[in-house]
Amino acid sequence: MPMDARATAARNxxxxxxxVCGSQGLVxxxxxxxWSVPHRSPQWYPDAVTVRPGVDAExxxxxxxxxxxxxxxxxxxxxxxxxxxFRVLFDAQWIHxxxxxxxxxxxxxxxxxxxxxxxxxxxxxxxxxxxPALLADPRVRVLARHDxxxxxxxxxxxxxxxxxxxSNLFTRTDSSRGIWRAVCATAPNAPLVGYETTRDLTPALxxxxxxxxxxxxxxxx
Length: 221
Hints:
By secondary structure, the chain is of the alpha+beta class. It has five helices and eleven strands. A hairpin with a 3-residue loop joins strand 1 and strand 2. The longest helix has 22 residues. The chain is globular and about 50 Å long. The N and C termini lie far apart (36 Å).
């Protein structure tokens, strides 16, 4: 079960990276080993994501622009890219929450228009990373929480067709535990996957997620 959930999370994350790159005109490639894009991916996004353990490091690097600034998401933390000019940027944990009964929380609100997406991206801090093409993709749900004045105070993205991947979760007012619980309330009947670093893991676990294995992101300095 943990390995299945881990592999599912890796594939979902690879699909999300492909969606983001595609929204900016970058054509990715996916096969049994990895997803990759031949030109530099947008800020905060890797140039490759492995989707199974035991992938050959040189084969992955041959698929990308492996010069300075390149990054690889090593989904099973089993690559050694240190001999190719890469260093570990961070380690993290894949997480999984099975479908469950709806928690007593208010679901997040879908973002449906380009203007709403601009406001959401400003609150998130991602700016032009989030293009209107994302709203037209049936695999993507951009979600927001608003205060009583209608101001966006938090949000997240759900991607995929089930299990859904949780990414870009943020809050501007309080602990992220509330946003995690709201995400769970938004999709109570579907499994959820994602990843978090050690620092941000506790709120996800408190909302019902469990860890399913390690991942590592490598950066060519």
